[in-house]
UniProtKB/TrEMBL annotation:
Keywords recorded for this protein, A-Z: ATP-binding, Nucleotide-binding
Residues where ATP binds: 181-188
Classification via Pfam families: FtsK_SpoIIIE
SUPFAM superfamilies: P-loop containing nucleoside triphosphate hydrolases
Span of domain FtsK: 163-362
Annotated protein name in UniProt: FtsK/SpoIIIE domain-containing protein
Recorded superkingdom: Bacteria
UniProt organism field: Streptomyces nigra
Amino acid sequence: MTAFTVALVLVVAAAGLLRWRRPAWYWLTFGVTLAALRVLIRYASVMDACGLTVPPSRWRLALARIADRPAPDSRVPRILRLRPTRTGLVLRLKLRPGQDAFDVAAASDRLRHSFSMYGVTSREVRSGVVELRLTGYDVLKRVQMPAKTDPRPMRVPVALREDGSVHYRDYRAVPHALTLGATESGKSVYQRNLVAGLAPMDVALVGIDCKQGVELFPLARRFSALADNPDTAAELLDALVDHMQGVYQLIRAEQRISVAVPDADIAADIWDLPEELRPVPVVVLVDEVAELALFANKEEEKRRDRIITALVRLAQLGRAAGIYLEICGQRFGSELGKGITMLRAQLTGRTAHRVNDETSANMAFGDISPDAVLAAIQIPAELRGVAIAGDFTGGWHRIRAPHTSLRQAVNVCNKHADRTPALPVLEPFRPAVAAPSAPRVPLSKAAPVTA
Ligand SMILES: Nc1ncnc2c1ncn2[C@@H]1O[C@H](COP(=O)(O)OP(=O)(O)OP(=O)(O)O)[C@@H](O)[C@H]1O
């Protein structure tokens, strides 16, 4: 008996310690079983308390009256499946007649308290079937990406969502994106994760980093072209527009051939082209975009207009040619001059890290989802890297990318340097990589760094 008591105390102490220090391990060892039991035992009473029941059907009431039995209980949504995951539980429910997915979504906070879970989100799987994702602990506190994700071309598992699922940046579904955030909010870490995710893929990376290349140049071995100042950026973007026109010519030439062949598929974008003809897709990463839109004199204003026009053209026409934009900055609104709101309308993927004011949050989500604006304003300053990600469907999620250091991203880029495609139009912008033995120069003697 004493040995049993000691063992029990030790197990409870171990569980408590794990729950406090290592919530992910606690969940896998004890939490998942306890939570599943809690949900199953409390299910009917919680549904009743949360107003998620419907009265018994008329014929059951009539039968009870005829048989002189007490009136039957209200009916709860039927559990179709309860599946444990690495971070929580997934509960699939069949709704009763008269219930809808909105009822469940509206009750999610009450369900969270009642089931003692960290978070509850819901989505409609199909008509009458709702999936509840119950999260066991704060998965965004220390982000650990699952070892296995669902790999597909041009789809990067870039962050974790608060419901424990993986957040993908899918370039084919959402070609162009805007990432906003105040300084030190986590934009560069997010962008680094994207580059590290894209590095092993068959894709050309093009970078424009007007912070003198501080963010992207260390990753240069995996980049086909880099620009670190607005003048080079203007030339690079013009070259990309030329590349885009070349790809369109290729698609047209292929269409001319397939039109003559009965029943042949007709290519509408690069993904419809035969693999041997398909040009490599290009992801253009722009850091601190405001630097490209600012000007102090007439010359710079002309350059600015040239840059914004090229970006708008790439955003409007680039998708079919396999050119995708990933634009990053602190603010991105009409205050940056003409053409900016037109460009923003094309950047349908939106990610907002912590912002300093409501106006900045509106720049990210004002035209997409008012709820997401509110969520972006509420990101706490101490949780760097937490962001709200949404798209043109109005749906949004709280996400956080894993804390990838610059060293880790550089290692991934160096490892996959041999996958860097050489595009002829981008050759003049190919970054020069310094030899490891290059001498270090103090600031007072340093010459400006060029691409
Ligand atoms: N996902 C994350 N998880 C944990 N810490 C993070 C995360 N993202 C960022 N941080 C922390 O926040 C700091 C600032 O991040 P980052 O450099 O990405 O911000 P930024 O928005 O690019 O800032 P700036 O605009 O000044 O360059 C990082 O040094 C890192 O310590």
